[in-house]
Design goal:
There is one protein chain. The protein has about 300 residues and is of the alpha+beta class. It is built from six helices and 14 strands.
Amino acid sequence: MTSDDTSSRAPLPSLAPLARGGLDRSAAERTQPDLLERLRADAGTRVLPAHADRAPLDEAGRLLLVAPHDVAEHARWAFLGRDADGTALLVAATAAEEPAPVEAERWGALRAVGGDLPADQSGAFVEAVSLGRWLVDAPHCAGCGARLEDRQAGWARRCPACDREHFPRTDPAVIVGVISSDGERLLLGRNALWAAANMFSTFAGFVEAGESLETTIVREVEEEAGVRVARLEYRGSQAWPYPRSLMLGFHAHAIDDAEARADGEEIVEVRWFTREELRAGLRGEADFGLPGAASIAHRLIVDWVEERP
C-alpha cells in the first residue's frame, strides 16, 4: 500500500517477529460445541499458560507448555490451534492480580522475549496474550451488563439476556519511521511516559473514527513531532496486545526537516539519527536506547538502517 505520491524504494522487509505466525489456527474446529471439554480431557493436549502478558519459560528460554491437568481451575480457556504435528494448543489465561495458572520458576513477558522466540512460539504467544486478555477483561455484556457465555472455543461470547454476540476487539494503530528529505537520517522521539530516560522510538497513534491510515499518519506525526510527511510506504503489521492493538508500520519522508519539534506533552524530545548512530544504538553502544526486538518499531528502524551499508 502506498500513497499516490509514493515512489518504491525497496522491497518489503521480512515480517516483524510477532507477525510470523507458524501455528494453524484451525478455525473450523471452533464450531464444535464440546471442543474445549474434549481437549482439556486429553492428556496429549498442550497448554500455554498466560498470566497477563507473561508465559512460563524453560531453561533454554522457550515457552514451557503444560498438560491440561497442570492448570489451575480459575483460568479462562480457549483453543489456539494446532502445531505442525497436529497437537492441539490451548491458552489458559489469568489476570495479573490473580494467582498464576501454573507454578513455574521462570516467566517472560511478550514484549521482552517475544522477539527471541522461534516463529511458531512467538505466534502462539501473541495469540494467547491477545485472546487471553479479552477473556479476562470482558466477561460482561457491554449492552446490558449480563454475564456472557463462551462460544466458539473461546473466540466469541453470547449474552443470555439480550442475545448480543461479542468478539475480541482489535484497535488499528499506525507506527511510523520518519525519514529526512535527503534520506540520510531517521527521526525518533522520546515519550514522556517511558521509564527509560533516554529511550527513543518511532511515532505511533490510534486510527480515529472515520479516518484512513494515510490521514492518521499525517496527523499523528505532525501532532507529535511537528513534521509534515509524504511518500508513505507500508512496511508490515504486527499484533501488539497492549492492550489490543494491530500496529500498521510505515516509513514516511519529511517535507521540511527543520519543522521537527516535540509536542512537549506526549513526546518530550525529537532527534534526527544517522545510520551509524542507530547501528551503535542497536549494538547497545550508544548513549540512547532503542525499542526491543519484539516490537515493530525495532523492525522499522532496522529496515531503514539496513537499506544501505
